[in-house]
Amino acid sequence: MTRTKQNIETDFFRQLDRFTFSVRKRVSTVYAGNRPSTRSGHGIDTIGFREYDLNDSLKDIDWKAYARTEKLYVRQFEEEKTLTTHILLDASKSMDYPEKGTSKFEYAAMLAAGYAYMVTKYNDRFAISTFTQEIDINKPSRGRKNLLRAIDRLTEFELSGNTSIGEAVIKYSREIKSRSLVILISDFLQEPEAIETAVSRLSDHDLILIQVLDSTEKVLPLQGNSKLIDLETGEEIRTYVSEKFKERYIKKLDDHSARIKKACMRVGAEFYTFTTDTPIFDAFYYTIRRRRH
């Protein structure tokens, strides 16, 4: 049964206020999050003067300095460079699990909202976009209003369709205009080749992959004759779940996650796995603590 309304809690935002979202300066000098650089003419704080040259605009000349020295000077400012954060959120039907309690999508949406909340503390731009076979692209913007609109949209979201992470990333990567922070949140229960392609395509950015699973998907708490339903296709599979079957399933899932992690390590990206019974703040604490070292 499809949920008509997603339950996206935001109370944990207060706990996030004690942290800063540290981003490794791996990408390029366009990075922000309180990363200062100097330029002439405009900015935040004056840090000095330099002599005027022909490439400077006349409007940047400090005429008071000219009156004192009879030489042309322009002010130099410290400028805060800004970081754009792109959050891609899996909205396929497989994320609508389980029917009761916190679904994978709800947990993933809280992660997305939490990262966006931390970005707003620096007044940086962010966008939360959702994908299935297609991708619903939202343009990056600043501010709490943008965050509240994004949360409202996710709250009313109806999940549908299959996951096509490769196609979604191909389309979205064309929209990223500069090196950015990209956070990809999904259960990643798709062909590993497609995920590896997505990681490779986004490898020029500061990239984080977060796998969200339900705890039952990690341990498969079934026994005997069982009916399994593919949430994306609706296909029913009847099988006998033995202890040997469980062992093979858990090993296959572990191997799948390990392959994704290896793909991330090759390009310097980060990969995390959380189950929906992990307190949401703990998930943030773990990823932020890791990024500080």
UniProtKB/TrEMBL annotation:
CDD domains: vWFA
Protein name per the record: VWFA domain-containing protein
Pfam families the UniProt entry points to: DUF58 (PF01882)
InterPro entries, per database record: DUF58 (IPR002881), VWF_A (IPR002035), vWFA_dom_sf (IPR036465)
Domain VWFA: 84-260
Signal peptide: none
